[in-house]
Design goal:
With 194 residues, the protein is mainly α. It contains nine helices and no strands. It has two domains: 49 residues, Homeodomain-like (Arc Repressor Mutant, subunit A); 137 residues, Orthogonal Bundle (Tetracycline Repressor, domain 2). It is 76% helix and 0% strand. The termini are far apart.
């Protein structure tokens, strides 16, 4: 019985993630999530008492997906740090194409669509970006120590610039419907570190 509940919950989150991208969080009703997921209304509300609670679960879903992808790429120690970073970004570019250029950065999409007073959403997304910046800072510091990157680089500032640069590239990739912008922008950025 608990496996059915878990799979129902997962199904609702996955369907909601897609609907929030395709139709927008504001324009997606809980009834539509019920209908598209095939999970009963009572079961949906058993797991999520409100649409806002479902949005938080969807954000966790994307955070887990990003973290899993980052961990997988970082295990590829036969690649240089630059190659690992680009491999991760190529995966992002591919997933954006698969979503037909909707919601290039799920976190920016959700923060833009969430109610202005929803501090839980903002806090969760802010925490994600802090963690992502910390991971990038660690990688850049590794690159400096292994002499892949210049030694005069400030790893923390560079990581923040990299994340800002990446978010801009994700936005432009969606607007221009060209995912190659993501990797070409990252390659240009990484050249500045050598």
């Amino acid at each position: 019985m608990s496996n059915i509940k878990i799979s129902n919950k997962k199904r609702v989150i996955e369907v909601a993630a897609l609907l929030f991208f395709q139709e927008g969080y504001t324009y997606t009703s809980m009834d539509e999530v019920v209908k598209k997921s095939g999970v009963s209304k009572s079961n949906v509300y058993y797991h999520f008492s409100s649409k806002e609670e479902l949005l938080l679960a969807v954000i966790d879903y994307w955070i887990d997906a990003y973290q899993s992808n980052i961990e997988e790429v970082m295990k590829q120690t036969d690649l240089s740090l630059s190659e690992r970073m680009l491999t991760f970004l190529e995966g992002l570019a591919s997933s954006i194409e698969q979503r037909n250029y909707q919601g290039s950065c799920p976190f920016i999409t959700f923060i833009m669509q969430s109610p202005n007073d929803d501090l839980d959403v903002k806090e969760k997304i802010n925490h994600f970006f802090d963690d992502l910046t910390s991971i990038c800072e660690h990688l850049i510091q590794q690159g400096i120590e292994t002499k892949e990157f210049r030694k005069d680089i400030n790893a923390k500032e560079t990581a923040q610039l990299f994340i800002n640069n990446l978010e801009g590239a994700l936005f432009l990739a969606e607007v221009k419907r060209d995912s190659s912008i993501i990797t070409s922008t990252a390659k240009d950025f990484l050249k500045l570190l050598i």
